[in-house]
Protein backbone atom coordinates (compact mmCIF):
# COMPACT_ATOMS: atom_id res chain seq x y z
CA UNK A 1 0.00 0.00 0.00
CA UNK A 2 1.42 3.36 -0.99
CA UNK A 3 0.54 5.88 1.64
CA UNK A 4 2.14 8.81 -0.17
CA UNK A 5 -0.59 9.17 -2.78
CA UNK A 6 -3.51 8.28 -0.59
CA UNK A 7 -4.04 11.57 1.22
CA UNK A 8 -7.66 12.52 0.78
CA UNK A 9 -8.60 15.78 -0.82
CA UNK A 10 -12.07 14.72 -1.86
CA UNK A 11 -15.34 14.10 -0.10
CA UNK A 12 -18.23 16.42 0.52
CA UNK A 13 -16.93 19.73 1.84
CA UNK A 14 -19.54 19.61 4.59
CA UNK A 15 -17.74 16.72 6.27
CA UNK A 16 -14.81 17.60 8.49
CA UNK A 17 -11.90 15.22 8.00
CA UNK A 18 -12.23 14.09 11.59
CA UNK A 19 -14.44 15.21 14.44
CA UNK A 20 -14.27 15.06 18.20
CA UNK A 21 -16.61 12.55 19.80
CA UNK A 22 -17.89 13.09 23.30
CA UNK A 23 -19.93 10.78 25.49
CA UNK A 24 -21.64 12.91 28.13
CA UNK A 25 -23.26 10.99 31.01
CA UNK A 26 -24.68 8.51 28.52
CA UNK A 27 -26.98 5.81 29.78
CA UNK A 28 -29.13 3.15 28.17
CA UNK A 29 -31.84 1.26 29.97
CA UNK A 30 -34.03 -1.31 28.32
CA UNK A 31 -37.61 -1.28 29.53
CA UNK A 32 -38.24 -4.13 31.94
CA UNK A 33 -34.56 -4.49 32.86
CA UNK A 34 -33.59 -3.35 36.32
CA UNK A 35 -29.90 -3.11 35.45
CA UNK A 36 -28.89 -0.48 32.91
CA UNK A 37 -27.02 -1.63 29.80
CA UNK A 38 -24.91 1.54 29.90
CA UNK A 39 -24.59 3.70 32.99
CA UNK A 40 -23.31 7.26 33.14
CA UNK A 41 -20.66 6.83 30.48
CA UNK A 42 -18.50 9.89 29.88
CA UNK A 43 -15.33 10.28 27.87
CA UNK A 44 -14.01 12.33 25.01
CA UNK A 45 -12.16 11.13 21.91
CA UNK A 46 -10.05 13.86 20.30
CA UNK A 47 -10.43 14.26 16.53
CA UNK A 48 -8.27 11.85 14.55
CA UNK A 49 -7.69 9.38 17.39
CA UNK A 50 -8.59 5.72 17.73
CA UNK A 51 -10.62 5.00 20.86
CA UNK A 52 -10.96 1.31 21.65
CA UNK A 53 -13.94 0.13 23.67
CA UNK A 54 -12.89 -3.08 25.36
CA UNK A 55 -14.27 -5.30 28.07
CA UNK A 56 -15.69 -8.73 28.85
CA UNK A 57 -18.72 -9.94 26.91
CA UNK A 58 -21.92 -8.34 28.10
CA UNK A 59 -20.19 -5.15 29.22
CA UNK A 60 -22.13 -3.07 26.72
CA UNK A 61 -19.26 -2.07 24.43
CA UNK A 62 -21.16 -2.78 21.21
CA UNK A 63 -24.26 -1.12 22.66
CA UNK A 64 -22.19 1.97 23.49
CA UNK A 65 -20.89 2.07 19.90
CA UNK A 66 -24.35 1.68 18.37
CA UNK A 67 -25.66 4.57 20.47
CA UNK A 68 -23.37 6.86 18.48
CA UNK A 69 -25.07 6.31 15.10
CA UNK A 70 -28.42 5.84 16.81
CA UNK A 71 -28.92 2.23 15.75
CA UNK A 72 -29.78 2.03 19.46
CA UNK A 73 -31.55 4.96 21.10
CA UNK A 74 -29.92 6.31 24.24
CA UNK A 75 -32.13 6.92 27.26
CA UNK A 76 -30.00 9.43 29.15
CA UNK A 77 -27.17 11.90 28.61
CA UNK A 78 -25.94 12.97 25.19
CA UNK A 79 -23.40 12.13 22.52
CA UNK A 80 -21.73 14.99 20.68
CA UNK A 81 -20.07 14.62 17.30
CA UNK A 82 -18.01 17.66 16.40
CA UNK A 83 -19.76 19.50 19.22
CA UNK A 84 -23.25 18.76 17.88
CA UNK A 85 -25.66 16.40 19.59
CA UNK A 86 -26.42 13.30 17.53
CA UNK A 87 -29.99 13.60 18.83
CA UNK A 88 -30.43 16.78 16.76
CA UNK A 89 -29.80 14.91 13.53
CA UNK A 90 -32.06 12.72 11.45
CA UNK A 91 -30.67 9.20 12.02
CA UNK A 92 -30.38 8.52 8.28
CA UNK A 93 -28.39 11.71 7.67
CA UNK A 94 -26.24 11.17 10.74
CA UNK A 95 -25.34 7.63 9.65
CA UNK A 96 -24.20 8.74 6.20
CA UNK A 97 -21.61 10.82 8.02
CA UNK A 98 -20.35 7.93 10.14
CA UNK A 99 -18.42 5.02 8.63
CA UNK A 100 -19.72 1.67 9.85
CA UNK A 101 -17.81 -1.63 9.86
CA UNK A 102 -18.95 -4.78 11.66
CA UNK A 103 -17.37 -8.17 12.29
CA UNK A 104 -19.57 -9.97 9.77
CA UNK A 105 -18.72 -7.13 7.34
CA UNK A 106 -22.18 -7.22 5.76
CA UNK A 107 -21.18 -6.52 2.18
CA UNK A 108 -24.20 -6.54 -0.12
CA UNK A 109 -23.90 -9.89 -1.94
CA UNK A 110 -25.95 -8.70 -4.93
CA UNK A 111 -23.77 -5.68 -5.66
CA UNK A 112 -20.31 -5.56 -7.22
CA UNK A 113 -17.35 -4.43 -5.14
CA UNK A 114 -17.50 -1.00 -6.79
CA UNK A 115 -21.21 -0.64 -6.07
CA UNK A 116 -20.71 -1.80 -2.49
CA UNK A 117 -18.02 0.83 -1.93
CA UNK A 118 -20.18 3.50 -3.57
CA UNK A 119 -23.16 2.81 -1.28
CA UNK A 120 -23.04 6.01 0.76
CA UNK A 121 -21.91 8.26 -2.14
CA UNK A 122 -24.93 6.97 -4.08
CA UNK A 123 -27.23 7.76 -1.15
CA UNK A 124 -25.68 11.23 -1.05
CA UNK A 125 -26.38 11.69 -4.75
CA UNK A 126 -22.83 11.95 -6.08
CA UNK A 127 -22.53 11.93 -9.85
CA UNK A 128 -21.33 8.80 -11.61
CA UNK A 129 -17.86 10.02 -12.49
CA UNK A 130 -17.10 11.15 -8.97
CA UNK A 131 -18.28 7.81 -7.61
CA UNK A 132 -16.10 5.88 -10.05
CA UNK A 133 -13.04 7.98 -9.25
CA UNK A 134 -13.60 7.61 -5.51
CA UNK A 135 -14.17 3.86 -5.77
CA UNK A 136 -10.96 3.35 -7.75
CA UNK A 137 -9.05 5.56 -5.33
CA UNK A 138 -10.28 3.52 -2.36
CA UNK A 139 -9.55 0.20 -4.05
CA UNK A 140 -5.97 1.34 -4.59
CA UNK A 141 -5.85 2.58 -0.99
CA UNK A 142 -6.65 -0.93 0.28
CA UNK A 143 -4.12 -2.45 -2.10
CA UNK A 144 -6.50 -3.81 -4.75
CA UNK A 145 -6.32 -3.34 -8.48
CA UNK A 146 -9.48 -1.45 -9.53
CA UNK A 147 -9.46 -2.97 -13.03
CA UNK A 148 -9.42 -6.45 -11.60
CA UNK A 149 -11.67 -6.05 -8.58
CA UNK A 150 -14.34 -3.47 -9.27
CA UNK A 151 -16.77 -5.75 -11.10
CA UNK A 152 -16.42 -8.77 -8.83
CA UNK A 153 -19.04 -9.84 -6.36
CA UNK A 154 -18.34 -10.29 -2.63
CA UNK A 155 -18.70 -14.08 -2.93
CA UNK A 156 -15.61 -14.07 -5.17
CA UNK A 157 -13.37 -12.53 -2.50
CA UNK A 158 -11.41 -14.05 0.37
CA UNK A 159 -12.30 -13.16 3.97
CA UNK A 160 -9.43 -10.70 4.24
CA UNK A 161 -10.33 -9.02 0.94
CA UNK A 162 -13.95 -8.67 2.04
CA UNK A 163 -12.80 -7.11 5.26
CA UNK A 164 -10.72 -4.54 3.36
CA UNK A 165 -13.62 -3.75 1.07
CA UNK A 166 -15.80 -3.28 4.16
CA UNK A 167 -13.35 -0.67 5.45
CA UNK A 168 -13.14 1.01 2.02
CA UNK A 169 -16.94 1.16 1.88
CA UNK A 170 -17.04 2.82 5.29
CA UNK A 171 -14.46 5.39 4.14
CA UNK A 172 -16.20 6.12 0.83
CA UNK A 173 -17.83 9.45 1.67
CA UNK A 174 -14.84 10.51 3.78
CA UNK A 175 -16.74 10.46 7.09
CA UNK A 176 -15.28 12.30 10.08
CA UNK A 177 -16.02 9.32 12.34
CA UNK A 178 -15.78 5.56 11.89
CA UNK A 179 -17.43 2.92 14.05
CA UNK A 180 -15.79 -0.50 13.90
CA UNK A 181 -17.27 -3.45 15.79
CA UNK A 182 -14.67 -6.24 16.09
CA UNK A 183 -13.68 -5.64 12.46
CA UNK A 184 -10.95 -8.30 12.53
CA UNK A 185 -12.77 -10.75 14.80
CA UNK A 186 -13.65 -13.28 12.11
CA UNK A 187 -10.19 -13.33 10.50
CA UNK A 188 -7.53 -15.98 11.16
CA UNK A 189 -4.72 -14.82 13.52
CA UNK A 190 -2.03 -14.36 10.85
CA UNK A 191 -4.23 -12.37 8.48
CA UNK A 192 -5.60 -10.43 11.43
CA UNK A 193 -2.13 -9.26 12.41
CA UNK A 194 -1.48 -8.14 8.84
CA UNK A 195 -4.85 -6.38 8.56
CA UNK A 196 -4.23 -4.61 11.87
CA UNK A 197 -0.87 -3.32 10.65
CA UNK A 198 -2.42 -2.31 7.36
CA UNK A 199 -5.21 -0.55 9.16
CA UNK A 200 -2.80 1.42 11.36
CA UNK A 201 -0.94 2.57 8.23
CA UNK A 202 -4.27 3.50 6.63
CA UNK A 203 -5.31 5.42 9.73
CA UNK A 204 -1.99 7.26 9.74
CA UNK A 205 -2.95 8.52 6.27
CA UNK A 206 -6.66 9.26 6.74
CA UNK A 207 -6.62 10.35 10.41
CA UNK A 208 -10.24 9.59 11.21
CA UNK A 209 -11.78 9.62 14.63
CA UNK A 210 -12.46 5.95 15.23
CA UNK A 211 -14.44 4.02 17.80
CA UNK A 212 -13.13 0.47 17.73
CA UNK A 213 -14.85 -2.31 19.68
CA UNK A 214 -12.99 -5.46 20.64
CA UNK A 215 -12.92 -8.01 23.45
CA UNK A 216 -9.20 -8.61 22.90
CA UNK A 217 -7.01 -6.49 25.18
CA UNK A 218 -3.94 -7.10 23.01
CA UNK A 219 -5.77 -5.76 19.99
CA UNK A 220 -6.96 -2.81 22.09
CA UNK A 221 -3.39 -1.98 23.13
CA UNK A 222 -2.13 -2.32 19.58
CA UNK A 223 -4.86 -0.31 17.87
CA UNK A 224 -5.87 2.28 20.42
CA UNK A 225 -4.63 5.80 21.01
CA UNK A 226 -6.98 5.64 23.96
CA UNK A 227 -8.71 2.71 25.58
CA UNK A 228 -12.02 2.73 27.41
CA UNK A 229 -12.32 -0.40 29.54
CA UNK A 230 -15.94 -1.20 30.34
CA UNK A 231 -17.21 -3.55 33.02
CA UNK A 232 -20.57 -5.25 33.41
CA UNK A 233 -23.48 -2.85 33.38
CA UNK A 234 -21.75 -0.56 30.92
CA UNK A 235 -19.73 1.31 33.53
CA UNK A 236 -16.40 2.85 32.60
CA UNK A 237 -13.60 1.15 34.54
CA UNK A 238 -10.78 3.23 33.08
CA UNK A 239 -10.17 5.60 30.19
CA UNK A 240 -6.50 6.01 29.38
CA UNK A 241 -3.75 5.65 26.82
CA UNK A 242 -2.42 2.09 26.45
CA UNK A 243 0.78 3.03 28.29
CA UNK A 244 -1.07 4.57 31.23
CA UNK A 245 -3.44 1.64 31.39
CA UNK A 246 -0.59 -0.86 31.59
CA UNK A 247 1.49 1.17 34.00
CA UNK A 248 -1.31 2.26 36.30
CA UNK A 249 -4.41 0.09 36.11
CA UNK A 250 -7.14 1.88 38.05
CA UNK A 251 -8.29 -1.13 40.05
CA UNK A 252 -8.17 -4.91 40.36
CA UNK A 253 -10.72 -5.39 37.59
CA UNK A 254 -8.59 -3.47 35.10
CA UNK A 255 -5.38 -5.09 36.34
CA UNK A 256 -6.90 -8.51 35.88
CA UNK A 257 -8.34 -7.62 32.50
CA UNK A 258 -5.07 -6.30 31.08
CA UNK A 259 -3.36 -9.43 32.39
CA UNK A 260 -0.48 -10.41 34.66
CA UNK A 261 1.91 -9.82 31.76
CA UNK A 262 1.05 -6.16 31.58
CA UNK A 263 4.67 -5.22 32.23
CA UNK A 264 5.68 -7.14 29.11
CA UNK A 265 2.82 -5.55 27.14
CA UNK A 266 4.12 -2.16 28.22
CA UNK A 267 7.56 -3.05 26.92
CA UNK A 268 6.03 -3.91 23.55
CA UNK A 269 4.81 -0.30 23.24
CA UNK A 270 8.34 1.08 22.90
CA UNK A 271 11.36 0.23 20.79
CA UNK A 272 15.03 0.25 21.72
CA UNK A 273 15.24 3.66 20.05
CA UNK A 274 13.08 5.02 22.88
CA UNK A 275 15.56 3.85 25.57
CA UNK A 276 18.62 5.60 26.87
CA UNK A 277 21.11 2.97 25.78
CA UNK A 278 24.40 2.33 27.60
CA UNK A 279 27.41 3.85 25.87
CA UNK A 280 29.24 1.09 23.99
CA UNK A 281 32.82 1.79 25.18
CA UNK A 282 32.45 0.78 28.86
CA UNK A 283 30.94 -2.68 28.92
CA UNK A 284 32.22 -5.38 26.56
CA UNK A 285 29.59 -6.79 24.21
CA UNK A 286 29.34 -10.49 23.52
CA UNK A 287 28.99 -9.91 19.79
CA UNK A 288 25.25 -10.55 19.47
CA UNK A 289 23.44 -7.72 17.77
CA UNK A 290 19.92 -6.40 17.84
CA UNK A 291 18.25 -3.77 15.61
CA UNK A 292 17.41 -0.38 17.05
CA UNK A 293 13.79 -0.66 15.87
CA UNK A 294 13.19 -3.91 17.81
CA UNK A 295 10.48 -3.49 20.41
CA UNK A 296 11.69 -3.67 24.00
CA UNK A 297 9.68 -6.80 24.77
CA UNK A 298 11.37 -8.72 21.96
CA UNK A 299 14.73 -7.28 23.03
CA UNK A 300 14.14 -8.63 26.54
CA UNK A 301 13.38 -12.02 25.09
CA UNK A 302 16.63 -11.93 23.09
CA UNK A 303 18.55 -10.88 26.22
CA UNK A 304 17.14 -13.83 28.16
CA UNK A 305 17.99 -16.15 25.28
CA UNK A 306 21.55 -14.80 25.34
CA UNK A 307 21.89 -15.81 28.97
CA UNK A 308 21.44 -12.26 30.22
CA UNK A 309 24.58 -10.92 28.59
CA UNK A 310 24.31 -7.40 27.11
CA UNK A 311 23.41 -7.06 23.43
CA UNK A 312 24.85 -4.59 20.97
CA UNK A 313 22.18 -2.36 19.46
CA UNK A 314 22.71 -1.36 15.85
CA UNK A 315 20.76 1.03 13.66
CA UNK A 316 19.63 0.35 10.08
CA UNK A 317 23.06 1.38 8.81
CA UNK A 318 24.67 -1.29 11.09
CA UNK A 319 26.21 1.46 13.19
CA UNK A 320 26.46 0.68 16.89
CA UNK A 321 23.97 2.76 18.87
CA UNK A 322 24.78 1.37 22.31
CA UNK A 323 24.23 -1.60 24.57
CA UNK A 324 21.08 -2.97 26.16
CA UNK A 325 20.96 -5.00 29.36
CA UNK A 326 18.25 -6.64 31.46
CA UNK A 327 18.90 -4.08 34.19
CA UNK A 328 18.34 -1.23 31.76
CA UNK A 329 14.95 -2.62 30.78
CA UNK A 330 14.06 -3.30 34.41
CA UNK A 331 14.90 0.31 35.14
CA UNK A 332 12.49 1.49 32.48
CA UNK A 333 9.64 -0.46 34.05
CA UNK A 334 10.54 0.80 37.50
CA UNK A 335 10.35 4.42 36.41
CA UNK A 336 7.29 6.09 37.77
CA UNK A 337 6.67 7.83 34.50
CA UNK A 338 5.05 5.67 31.86
CA UNK A 339 7.11 4.84 28.79
CA UNK A 340 6.53 7.01 25.75
CA UNK A 341 3.69 5.88 23.52
CA UNK A 342 5.04 4.47 20.31
CA UNK A 343 2.56 6.26 18.10
CA UNK A 344 2.61 9.49 20.05
CA UNK A 345 6.38 9.58 19.65
CA UNK A 346 6.18 9.80 15.88
CA UNK B 1 -65.93 -21.12 -28.06
CA UNK B 2 -65.97 -23.52 -30.91
CA UNK B 3 -67.09 -26.91 -29.89
CA UNK B 4 -65.66 -29.39 -32.27
CA UNK B 5 -67.50 -32.61 -32.55
CA UNK B 6 -65.49 -35.11 -34.48
CA UNK B 7 -67.76 -36.51 -37.09
CA UNK B 8 -67.16 -40.21 -36.77
CA UNK B 9 -69.65 -41.17 -39.49
CA UNK B 10 -68.68 -38.81 -42.25
CA UNK B 11 -65.79 -39.63 -44.48
CA UNK B 12 -64.21 -36.15 -43.99
CA UNK B 13 -61.89 -37.17 -41.19
CA UNK B 14 -61.03 -40.54 -42.54
CA UNK B 15 -60.90 -43.82 -40.72
CA UNK B 16 -58.26 -42.59 -38.23
CA UNK B 17 -60.77 -40.27 -36.61
CA UNK B 18 -63.84 -42.49 -37.01
CA UNK B 19 -62.00 -45.36 -35.37
CA UNK B 20 -60.53 -42.98 -32.69
CA UNK B 21 -56.92 -44.04 -33.24
CA UNK B 22 -54.23 -42.79 -30.87
CA UNK B 23 -53.23 -39.75 -32.94
CA UNK B 24 -54.69 -38.36 -36.18
CA UNK B 25 -52.42 -35.78 -37.80
CA UNK B 26 -55.16 -34.70 -40.22
CA UNK B 27 -57.45 -33.69 -37.38
CA UNK B 28 -54.72 -31.55 -35.85
CA UNK B 29 -54.10 -29.84 -39.20
CA UNK B 30 -57.76 -29.01 -39.63
CA UNK B 31 -58.37 -27.87 -36.06
CA UNK B 32 -55.11 -26.10 -35.12
CA UNK B 33 -56.20 -22.58 -36.00
CA UNK B 34 -59.86 -23.08 -35.07
CA UNK B 35 -59.55 -24.96 -31.79
CA UNK B 36 -56.07 -25.54 -30.40
CA UNK B 37 -54.40 -22.21 -31.11
CA UNK B 38 -57.20 -20.05 -29.57
CA UNK B 39 -57.37 -22.42 -26.58
CA UNK B 40 -53.61 -22.07 -26.09
CA UNK B 41 -53.89 -18.28 -26.29
CA UNK B 42 -56.70 -18.23 -23.75
CA UNK B 43 -54.67 -20.47 -21.48
CA UNK B 44 -51.71 -18.11 -21.57
CA UNK B 45 -54.00 -15.16 -20.76
CA UNK B 46 -55.69 -17.06 -17.91
CA UNK B 47 -52.29 -17.88 -16.47
CA UNK B 48 -50.74 -14.42 -16.86
CA UNK B 49 -53.69 -12.69 -15.21
CA UNK B 50 -53.84 -15.18 -12.34
CA UNK B 51 -50.09 -15.11 -11.63
CA UNK B 52 -49.91 -11.34 -12.13
CA UNK B 53 -52.72 -10.51 -9.72
CA UNK B 54 -51.60 -13.25 -7.33
CA UNK B 55 -48.06 -11.84 -7.29
CA UNK B 56 -49.19 -8.30 -6.53
CA UNK B 57 -51.49 -9.50 -3.72
CA UNK B 58 -48.92 -11.88 -2.27
CA UNK B 59 -46.18 -9.23 -2.40
CA UNK B 60 -48.40 -6.83 -0.49
CA UNK B 61 -49.25 -9.48 2.08
CA UNK B 62 -45.64 -10.59 2.45
CA UNK B 63 -44.39 -7.02 2.92
CA UNK B 64 -47.09 -6.43 5.53
CA UNK B 65 -46.17 -9.64 7.37
CA UNK B 66 -42.46 -8.74 7.08
CA UNK B 67 -43.05 -5.46 8.91
CA UNK B 68 -45.74 -6.71 11.30
CA UNK B 69 -44.84 -10.24 12.21
CA UNK B 70 -48.19 -10.92 13.95
CA UNK B 71 -49.78 -10.84 10.50
CA UNK B 72 -47.85 -13.87 9.35
CA UNK B 73 -50.06 -16.45 11.10
CA UNK B 74 -53.47 -15.23 9.95
CA UNK B 75 -52.21 -14.62 6.41
CA UNK B 76 -50.45 -17.96 6.33
CA UNK B 77 -53.52 -19.81 7.57
CA UNK B 78 -55.85 -17.92 5.22
CA UNK B 79 -53.79 -18.65 2.12
CA UNK B 80 -53.30 -22.26 3.21
CA UNK B 81 -57.07 -22.76 3.52
CA UNK B 82 -57.58 -21.30 0.04
CA UNK B 83 -54.91 -23.63 -1.25
CA UNK B 84 -56.50 -26.75 0.20
CA UNK B 85 -60.01 -26.22 -1.23
CA UNK B 86 -60.45 -28.64 -4.15
CA UNK B 87 -60.50 -26.62 -7.36
CA UNK B 88 -63.83 -27.91 -8.64
CA UNK B 89 -65.45 -27.13 -5.30
CA UNK B 90 -64.02 -23.62 -5.33
CA UNK B 91 -65.40 -23.00 -8.83
CA UNK B 92 -68.82 -24.15 -7.63
CA UNK B 93 -68.63 -21.89 -4.56
CA UNK B 94 -67.76 -18.85 -6.68
CA UNK B 95 -70.09 -19.51 -9.61
CA UNK B 96 -73.27 -18.19 -7.93
CA UNK B 97 -71.57 -14.82 -7.39
CA UNK B 98 -69.76 -14.29 -10.66
CA UNK B 99 -71.50 -16.71 -13.03
CA UNK B 100 -69.77 -19.09 -15.36
CA UNK B 101 -67.23 -16.44 -16.34
CA UNK B 102 -63.51 -15.96 -16.61
CA UNK B 103 -63.73 -13.83 -13.44
CA UNK B 104 -64.80 -16.88 -11.46
CA UNK B 105 -61.95 -18.88 -12.92
CA UNK B 106 -59.38 -16.15 -12.26
CA UNK B 107 -60.47 -15.65 -8.65
CA UNK B 108 -60.00 -19.33 -7.97
CA UNK B 109 -56.64 -19.46 -9.80
CA UNK B 110 -55.35 -16.39 -7.96
CA UNK B 111 -56.35 -18.10 -4.71
CA UNK B 112 -54.06 -21.02 -5.48
CA UNK B 113 -51.02 -18.79 -6.18
CA UNK B 114 -51.27 -16.88 -2.89
CA UNK B 115 -49.92 -19.51 -0.51
CA UNK B 116 -46.90 -20.31 -2.68
CA UNK B 117 -46.04 -16.71 -3.50
CA UNK B 118 -46.70 -15.34 0.00
CA UNK B 119 -44.54 -18.02 1.64
CA UNK B 120 -41.70 -17.66 -0.83
CA UNK B 121 -41.56 -13.88 -0.80
CA UNK B 122 -41.70 -13.76 3.00
CA UNK B 123 -39.08 -16.48 3.37
CA UNK B 124 -36.84 -14.69 0.86
CA UNK B 125 -37.07 -11.44 2.81
CA UNK B 126 -36.52 -13.18 6.16
CA UNK B 127 -33.43 -14.93 4.85
CA UNK B 128 -31.62 -11.69 4.10
CA UNK B 129 -28.60 -11.99 6.42
CA UNK B 130 -29.09 -9.83 9.54
CA UNK B 131 -25.65 -8.27 9.14
CA UNK B 132 -26.59 -7.09 5.65
CA UNK B 133 -29.74 -5.45 6.98
CA UNK B 134 -27.71 -3.97 9.82
CA UNK B 135 -25.08 -2.40 7.56
CA UNK B 136 -27.77 -1.08 5.20
CA UNK B 137 -29.37 0.85 8.06
CA UNK B 138 -26.00 1.62 9.66
CA UNK B 139 -24.81 3.35 6.48
CA UNK B 140 -27.85 5.59 6.41
CA UNK B 141 -30.41 3.86 4.21
CA UNK B 142 -34.01 4.54 5.16
CA UNK B 143 -36.24 1.50 5.74
CA UNK B 144 -37.65 1.97 2.24
CA UNK B 145 -34.20 2.28 0.61
CA UNK B 146 -33.04 -0.83 2.43
CA UNK B 147 -36.13 -2.73 1.26
CA UNK B 148 -35.88 -1.78 -2.40
CA UNK B 149 -32.10 -1.64 -2.80
CA UNK B 150 -31.07 -4.52 -0.57
CA UNK B 151 -33.75 -6.76 0.88
CA UNK B 152 -36.03 -7.33 -2.13
CA UNK B 153 -33.12 -7.86 -4.56
CA UNK B 154 -31.64 -10.42 -2.16
CA UNK B 155 -35.04 -12.13 -1.86
CA UNK B 156 -35.25 -12.44 -5.66
CA UNK B 157 -34.06 -16.06 -5.93
CA UNK B 158 -36.77 -17.17 -3.46
CA UNK B 159 -39.37 -14.94 -5.13
CA UNK B 160 -38.51 -16.33 -8.56
CA UNK B 161 -38.68 -19.88 -7.22
CA UNK B 162 -42.18 -19.11 -5.94
CA UNK B 163 -43.19 -17.62 -9.29
CA UNK B 164 -42.02 -20.76 -11.07
CA UNK B 165 -44.05 -23.07 -8.85
CA UNK B 166 -47.09 -20.78 -8.96
CA UNK B 167 -46.96 -20.48 -12.75
CA UNK B 168 -46.69 -24.21 -13.37
CA UNK B 169 -49.46 -24.85 -10.84
CA UNK B 170 -51.76 -22.33 -12.50
CA UNK B 171 -51.07 -23.69 -15.98
CA UNK B 172 -52.09 -27.12 -14.74
CA UNK B 173 -55.12 -25.92 -12.75
CA UNK B 174 -56.33 -23.63 -15.52
CA UNK B 175 -57.28 -26.71 -17.54
CA UNK B 176 -59.90 -27.42 -14.86
CA UNK B 177 -61.10 -23.83 -15.12
CA UNK B 178 -62.67 -24.71 -18.49
CA UNK B 179 -65.26 -26.57 -16.45
CA UNK B 180 -66.63 -23.20 -15.36
CA UNK B 181 -65.75 -20.75 -18.14
CA UNK B 182 -65.10 -22.97 -21.14
CA UNK B 183 -61.77 -21.31 -21.92
CA UNK B 184 -58.21 -22.41 -22.25
CA UNK B 185 -56.76 -25.80 -23.07
CA UNK B 186 -59.24 -27.41 -20.69
CA UNK B 187 -62.05 -26.71 -23.16
CA UNK B 188 -60.85 -29.13 -25.88
CA UNK B 189 -59.96 -31.62 -23.14
CA UNK B 190 -63.52 -31.58 -21.81
CA UNK B 191 -64.85 -31.78 -25.36
CA UNK B 192 -62.69 -34.79 -26.08
CA UNK B 193 -63.81 -36.51 -22.88
CA UNK B 194 -67.47 -35.88 -23.76
CA UNK B 195 -66.94 -37.35 -27.23
CA UNK B 196 -66.14 -40.86 -26.12
CA UNK B 197 -62.65 -39.73 -25.13
CA UNK B 198 -61.43 -38.59 -28.52
CA UNK B 199 -57.74 -39.42 -28.13
CA UNK B 200 -56.16 -37.03 -30.63
CA UNK B 201 -57.76 -33.92 -29.14
CA UNK B 202 -57.06 -35.08 -25.58
CA UNK B 203 -53.39 -35.71 -26.34
CA UNK B 204 -53.01 -32.43 -28.26
CA UNK B 205 -54.61 -30.21 -25.60
CA UNK B 206 -52.97 -32.02 -22.71
CA UNK B 207 -49.63 -32.02 -24.48
CA UNK B 208 -49.87 -28.30 -25.19
CA UNK B 209 -50.59 -27.63 -21.50
CA UNK B 210 -47.51 -29.60 -20.52
CA UNK B 211 -45.33 -27.85 -23.10
CA UNK B 212 -46.67 -24.49 -22.01
CA UNK B 213 -45.68 -25.28 -18.42
CA UNK B 214 -42.18 -26.32 -19.50
CA UNK B 215 -41.67 -23.27 -21.70
CA UNK B 216 -42.95 -20.92 -18.98
CA UNK B 217 -40.56 -22.49 -16.48
CA UNK B 218 -37.61 -22.14 -18.86
CA UNK B 219 -38.47 -18.49 -19.48
CA UNK B 220 -38.68 -17.82 -15.72
CA UNK B 221 -35.33 -19.52 -15.12
CA UNK B 222 -33.86 -17.26 -17.81
CA UNK B 223 -35.39 -14.19 -16.21
CA UNK B 224 -34.02 -15.23 -12.84
CA UNK B 225 -30.52 -15.63 -14.25
CA UNK B 226 -30.73 -12.18 -15.81
CA UNK B 227 -31.98 -10.59 -12.59
CA UNK B 228 -29.52 -12.28 -10.24
CA UNK B 229 -26.08 -12.09 -11.88
CA UNK B 230 -24.39 -12.34 -8.48
CA UNK B 231 -25.84 -15.80 -7.87
CA UNK B 232 -23.93 -17.21 -10.84
CA UNK B 233 -20.52 -16.37 -9.43
CA UNK B 234 -20.47 -18.66 -6.43
List keywords for this structure.
heterodimer, A: 346 residues, alpha/beta, Rossmann fold, CBS domain Like, six-stranded mixed beta sheet, four-stranded antiparallel beta sheet, globular, B: mainly alpha, MetI-like fold
Q: Which architecture of the largest domain in chain A would the CATH scheme give at its second level? A: 3-Layer(aba) Sandwich
Low-confidence stretches of chain A: 1-14, 336-346
Order of strands in the sheet with the most strands of chain A? 6-7-8-3-9-10
Distance between the termini of chain B: 50 Å
SSE ordering of chain A = EEEHEEHEHHHHHEHEHEEHHHEHEEHH
What is the CATH class designation of chain B? Mainly Alpha
The total beta strand count of chain B reads 0
This entry's quaternary arrangement is heterodimer
Structural category of chain B is mainly alpha
- What is the CATH third-level topology name of the largest domain in chain A? Rossmann fold
* Most extensive chain-chain interface: A-B, 28 and 22 residues
Query: What's the pLDDT, averaged over the residues of chain A?
Result: 87
Task: Write the element-wise H/E pattern of chain B from the N-terminal end onward.
Answer: HHHHHHHHH
Cα-to-Cα separation, first versus last residue of chain A: 20 Å
Portion in helices of chain B: over 70%
Return Rg of chain A in Å.
22 Å
Give the CATH superfamily of chain B.
MetI-like
Q: What amount of the residues of chain B lies in strands?
A: under 5%
Strand count, sense and closure of the main sheet of chain A?
6 strands, mixed
What's the name of the CATH homologous superfamily of the largest domain in chain A? P-loop containing nucleotide triphosphate hydrolases
Q: How many separate helices of chain B?
A: 9
The gist of it:
With 346 residues, chain A is an alpha/beta fold. Chain A has helices at 61-68, 91-96, 113-117, 119-123, 128-141, 146-149, 159-171, 189-206, 217-223, 242-247, 252-258, 262-268, 296-305, 326-334, 342-345, and strands spanning 21-28, 38-45, 50-54, 76-81, 84-85, 98-102, 177-181, 209-214, 226-231, 235-240, 289-291, 311-314, 320-324. Chain B has a single domain (38-226), classed as MetI-like (MetI-like fold, Orthogonal Bundle), CATH 1.10.3720.10.
Amino acid sequence: MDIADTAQHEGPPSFAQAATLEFRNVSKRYPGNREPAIEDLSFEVPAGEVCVLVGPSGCGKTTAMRLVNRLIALTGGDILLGGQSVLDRRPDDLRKEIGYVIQQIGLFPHLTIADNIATVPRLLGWDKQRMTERTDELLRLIGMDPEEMRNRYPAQLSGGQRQRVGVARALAADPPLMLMDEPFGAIDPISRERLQDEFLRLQAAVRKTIVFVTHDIDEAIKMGDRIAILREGGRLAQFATPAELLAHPADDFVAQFVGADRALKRLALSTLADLKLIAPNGTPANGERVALRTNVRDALSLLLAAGGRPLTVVDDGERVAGLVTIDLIGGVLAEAASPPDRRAAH
Amino acid sequence: MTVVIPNFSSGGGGSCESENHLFCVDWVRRNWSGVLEPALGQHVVLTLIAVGIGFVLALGMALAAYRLSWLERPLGIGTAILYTIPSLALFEILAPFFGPTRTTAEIALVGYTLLILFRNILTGLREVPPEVRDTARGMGMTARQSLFRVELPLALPAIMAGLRIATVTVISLATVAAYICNQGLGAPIFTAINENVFKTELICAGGLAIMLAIVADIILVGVQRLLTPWARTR
